[in-house]
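REQUEST FORM: STRUCTURE PREDICTION
Request ID: SP-0412
Submitted by: Lab K.M.
Chain count: 1
Length (residues): 237
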Amino acid sequence: MPAAQSGGQSIPAYVTAAIKDPARAADTKDDARRQMAAVMTFAQVKPGATVLELVPSSGYWTRVFSAIVGPGGHVYTVWPDEMGKYSAKSYANWQKLVATPHYANVTLLQQPAARLSVPVKVDVVFTAQNYHDYHDPFMGPVDMAGFDKAVFDALRPGGVFVVIDHVAPAGSGLADTDTLHRIDPAVVKKEVEAAGFVFDGESDALRNPADPHTKAVFDKSIRGHTDQFIYRFRKPK
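STATUS: Completed
RESULT:
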């Protein structure tokens, strides 16, 4: 039964329950701004599912994934080796999270960015605000054709790849990934479809027409309120 509506989507009761998990009380202040309910519904994650999350950072999304999939599902989180020197604090916190009994269904995978690997086929691959990082020098840069093919191979037939990232000006390609930390959505769509995915829709839950697309995402005038696209790609059955 749908529990609520968000952005025109019916929010499943299991998503609402996961968001209300007392273990994530500190995160709830950001839920409206980050459109947690709408994003989780769009990602189509369900109880019992297996999720692969790329670069989980603070664990904001992961804690809800964990609660949605429950004891019958699992969440694999990938920390690229190359992120280590930039995310030492987050990584240390993450090691504590996966050791917590409440998150027994969360596993940490540390591996080179260019060699994505997961021990089982998954239902959902999810990345928020870091697809652009894989293009940057500090990450290799990664051969994105190979990377997106690895994502494709990690999914079960019918599974989805959900990409959230900061919008760069139309036609800018990859020019802003290392400076403004933004990426042209058209590039993402082209790269991911080239791996065999079918574009399966987009959500405007995180769009902000007031964002000029010309400032770094950490600029005080726009931080936390950037214009972001949410794309869903499906692996054909």
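NOTES: The CA atoms of residues 27 and 236 lie 35 Å apart.
Reviewed by: T.R.
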